[in-house]
Amino acid sequence: MTAGLVVALWGPTGAPGVSTVAAALAGELAAAMRVILVDANLTRGALGVLLKAAQGGNIVSATRFPAPRGAACAPGQLQDHRAGFRLLPGIPGPAQGLSVEPTALAAVLDRLRGAADLVLVDVGSRLVVPPAGMAAAGSDAGSGHAAALAAADLALVIARATRLGVSDLLLQYPLLDQALARGAGAGTAERWCVLNNGSGRRMRTDEGRVTGALGGRTDGEAPLRVVAYLPHHHEAVDDAEEQGLPVTVARRDSPLSRAILPVADRLAAAADRRRAAP
Ligand SMILES: Nc1ncnc2c1ncn2[C@@H]1O[C@H](COP(=O)(O)OP(=O)(O)OP(=O)(O)O)[C@@H](O)[C@H]1O
Ligand SMILES: [Mg+2]
Predict the structure, then answer these.
(1) What percent of the chain has pLDDT over 70?
(2) Ligand that comes closest to the CA of residue 11
(3) Does residue 63 have its Cβ closer than 6 Å to ligand 1?
(4) By residue range, what is the domain housing residue 153?
């Protein structure tokens, strides 16, 4: 059995671009490895809409229908996307009122690990973290998000590269930290930060604010490292949306896609390291 790398992509409130970056990384890496993209934003699943997914399975049915022995989910849940990865769509819009049991979500992610080299999980911003020593429970979407983070090997934090975006990140980071501390690695999972949708003018200032506030901690806590700064590029995300494709597939030559490449390379290397581990 293979042991794929589970990466949770999370960002604070303010729609910093988590879904855009998650889809872009899936599209970029699909040619090199087996990638599964999971929409676990339980308040506003966007990937099915953004990537024009067909009708079929989703995160709710995948957590509720029993998986056959040796399979990650019931038949028909994972969709083959034309960009080359497999997609487990979410539930669009908060009006659906469907809930996902946090432990069932963690169990699905763990099974998907055995079916891919890389599992990219789009996690919603709301976090409800259980008290220490307790398993996540309840129907609040925030509990599901916290469980998805706890199940991950690596957290990729997307923050909007603006004064407000960085402020949102710094204010909400302690909750993320608590959610990761509930994981099997007790908070030792690596954390990378991507600043997105920036103008370039404040690049150094925004990076400095994140690393200054969160990067230097050494008290046994994994620091948050800024690994990329992605430019605002309306035209490329517009084209991608129109075509229902990741931006790295629809507009591979765009400045946005080019800036995402080093993050994809880092993830590929992390997935290789995990595969090679005994
Ligand atoms: N680098 C970028 N350049 C231009 N537009 C961008 C960029 N990144 C994201 N966007 C746009 O910002 C909006 C929010 O992006 P997205 O839906 O990916 O955010 P999110 O963090 O997943 O939000 P939510 O909290 O709703 O899940 C979208 O309209 C998207 O096209
Ligand atoms: Mg989203």
Answers:
(1) 96
(2) 1
(3) no
(4) 5-276
Nearest Cα neighbor of 89 from 117, 113, 122 is: 122
CA distance 278 to 267: 19
Please report, rounded to a whole number, the percentage of residues in the chain having pLDDT higher than 90: 76
- Coil, helix or strand for 215? helix
Name the residue of 237, 243, 263 whose CB sits within 8 Å of the most ligand 1 atoms, as the mutation to test its pocket: 237
How many structural domains comprise the chain?
1
Partners of 6 in the beta sheet? Answer: 119
Closest CA to ligand 1's atom 15: 17
CA of 229 relative to ligand 2 center, distance in Å: 18
Q: Can you tell me which atom of ligand 1 is nearest the CA of 158?
A: 21
Helix axes 102-113, 141-150, angle to 10 degrees: 30
Please tell me the pTM assigned to this model. Answer: 0.96
Q: Is the CB of 19 under 6 A from ligand 1?
A: yes
Q: Tell the burial category of 187 from Cβ atoms under 10 Å away from its Cβ (0-12, 13-18, 19+).
A: middle
CATH for 79: 3.40.50.300
* Residues flanking ion ligand 2, Cβ below 5 Å: 18-19, 46
Residue type at 123?
Answer: V
**Section 136-141 average pLDDT:** 84
Go through the chain and tell me how many residues it has. Answer: 278
Asked whether residue 213 carries a pLDDT value surpassing 90, the answer given is no
